[in-house]
Design goal:
Helix content: over 70%
CATH architecture: Orthogonal Bundle
Number of helices: 7
Shape: globular
Number of strands: 2
CATH topology: Arp2/3 complex 21 kDa subunit ARPC3
CATH class: Mainly Alpha
């Protein structure tokens, strides 16, 4: 690959990373407030990693989180600031990064294997749930008193499983098609 082509590809990937960080933010603004808001963030994360691949998809998630920590209102409810991570739901935001990292870790073995790609996305989602649930329990206990795991799962995980699996499938499908379109534009 010559220098001009290499430079173009780097610029393109940096631009796409920024675009997907913004897309995750837009997905977070589409929100139904509950104990843990229903948003499209998981769709945005899945789509970023599906289209950009593990490295740049994870970078897009990291950029999104850093923008929010810097005070840009990219989180659910048009909120921002590092203090958001200290709330009950902050662990789910950090969990998005863990989710992207897991999908990235399984990217090479999953290449060309749809079932393994979907498994890696599901495993990433499960890790995000686990991370966010533990974080929720710790912060909630510090602010309001202890709460049982079953209660937190009822508030923070069970209502989200089916919608998140639908988002996973939609992002996988859209991501595969969008990746083909973008490849043809190069």
């Amino acid at each position: 690959m010559n220098t001009a082509t290499n430079s173009f590809m780097k610029t393109r990937m940096m631009t796409m990373t920024a675009v997907f960080a913004v897309l995750i933010a837009i997905c977070s603004w589409i929100s139904i407030p509950t104990a843990v808001p229903f948003t499209l963030q998981t769709f945005g994360v899945f789509l970023a990693v599906s289209v950009l691949g593990g490295k740049f998809g994870t970078l897009a998630v990291l950029v999104y989180i850093l923008l929010g920590c810097a005070g840009v209102p990219v989180f659910a409810g048009f909120t921002g600031g590092i203090g958001i991570l200290a709330t009950n739901t902050g662990g789910y935001i950090v969990g998005f990064l863990a989710m992207a990292l897991i999908i990235w870790a399984l990217e090479k073995p999953a290449r060309g294997r749809v079932w393994l790609q979907l498994f890696s996305m599901g495993l990433g989602l499960a890790v995000c749930y686990a991370f966010g649930t533990i974080w929720f329990m710790i912060v909630y206990a510090g602010n309001s008193g202890s709460v049982g795991l079953a209660t937190v799962l009822g508030w923070c995980v069970i209502p989200f499983v089916i919608p998140d699996l639908i988002k996973l499938a939609a992002a996988f499908t859209v991501g595969r098609n969008l990746k083909k379109i973008l490849r043809n534009l190069a």
